[in-house]
Amino acid sequence: KVMHQFADIKEHVRHLDDDGELRDYLTKLLDGVAGDGSGKIYGLGHAVYTVSDPRAEIIKENARSLAESKGRLEDLELMERIEEIGKEQILDRRKNKLPLCANVDMYSGLIYDMLGIPVALYTPLFAIARIAGWCANRMEEVLTCNRIMRPAYRAALKNMPYVPMSER
């Protein structure tokens, strides 16, 4: 969704370096009269991470060197401006003033695009990277409380002494 919206922004904002024009279009997105009509700026906000999403920060740091090597620095800088202006606009509309951050999806799609990965593979890549964690979470649910819950580490095995590789 982030990359579809990014393409939509690039198509409809005539002067991409004009923060006022970008702000006006982001307002239309938030009002639900532009883009897919969802009223969202995709890639902003997270249910758990509010101050920052550490995954997004790491991806964003690495996106810069990749963008420089691929000649896509303008795209990265536009994404960064969407993040900053979008955060301001969303916070201005919120009743609660909880912090807002970019989530991991904000920059991962741009990285995938710079690597030449087709958009149709973005969601499968997202899922593949999380399957082990999802399985561990489900095992934790079944073993500890038999209900759906947010993940938290609870060892399902008893502590065992470490056996060096040479002794195994």
Describe this structure in words.
By secondary structure, the protein is mainly alpha-helical. It has helices at 2-12, 19-31, 54-70, 73-93, 105-114, 122-144. Helix 3 (54-70) runs antiparallel to helix 4.
Instruction: Please indicate the percent range of residues in DSSP E strands (runs of 2 or more).
Output: under 5%
The helical percent reads: 55-70%
Order of helices and strands: HHHHHH
Number of strands: 0
User: Mean pLDDT, as a whole number?
Assistant: 91
Unreliable stretches covering 5 or more consecutive residues: none
* Helix/strand/pairing category: mainly alpha
Main β-sheet description: none
Span of the ends, CA to CA: 48 Å
Number of helices, where a helix is a run of at least 4 consecutive DSSP H or I residues: 6
Shape: globular
| Rg result | 20 Å
Defining key terms:
single chain, about 170 residues, mainly alpha, 6 helices
Secondary structure topology:
Elements: H1 2-12, H2 19-31, H3 54-70, H4 73-93, H5 105-114, H6 122-144
Helix pairs in contact: 2-4, 3-4, 3-5
Concise structural overview:
The chain is mostly helical and 168 residues long. 57% of the residues lie in helices and 0% in strands.
